[in-house]
Design brief:
By secondary structure, the chain is of the alpha/beta class. It has one domain (3-219): Ribonuclease Z/Hydroxyacylglutathione hydrolase-like (Metallo-beta-lactamase, Chain A, 4-Layer Sandwich), CATH 3.60.15. It is built from six helices and 14 strands. The strands form two sheets. The protein has a seven-stranded mixed beta sheet, with helices on one face. It is globular and about 50 Å long.
Amino acid sequence: MATSLRWLGHGCWFIESDGHRIILDPFLDESPVSPLKSDQVKADYVLISHGHFDHMGDAEKIAKANAATVIATYEICEWLNRKGVSSTHAMNIGGTYRFPFGRVKMTPAIHTSMLPDGSYGGAAVGYLLFLPAGNVYFACDTGLFLDMQLIGDHGLELAVLPIGDNFTMGPEDALRAVALLRPKKVVPVHVNTWPLIAQDVSEWASQVREKTKSEPVVLKPGDTISLA
């Protein structure tokens, strides 16, 4: 069955696959670019990459409103349990688990993680989703690391990479990441949310076309990409 992935701006994605609804890194209500608010989201699962407000700001609200299962590191799951979120599934880097929508592998990310109240958020992570329509890698917030080559060995239909710089990879390192990952398609994110992470996305896409074999897909917040 087809899988649709809708970019909701910054690092947030809404994924529909085989009848299941997943939201990744929900940051909607306070986002200056999101086309949706948290009360408009219907989700069965909430994936969280790390504890920063711009990646889990609306996780608690969405999880409670939908009785959704949160998938995250142990530290984030425990924090949300104390907040009254009843269904969580804790994982750690390198671990894989089969959910009804597909297998999820928690991958490394070179980044920090602190929860909204200042407490320890565990390690920052990315996600490799083994979906019926193909494998999708969300690097989430990260710098470049050489082991992306190993992630690429899984055969990626799509890679989603930050290019905003300052807090994550910038355009140059993200281009090198594409070469390591070798995805069929790549989408740039974590960019142009605020002036501090503004980049010329079209120019980056041109560089991807010129220097790699991957197809860049430039989306606006609210746009959808489908995998057959």
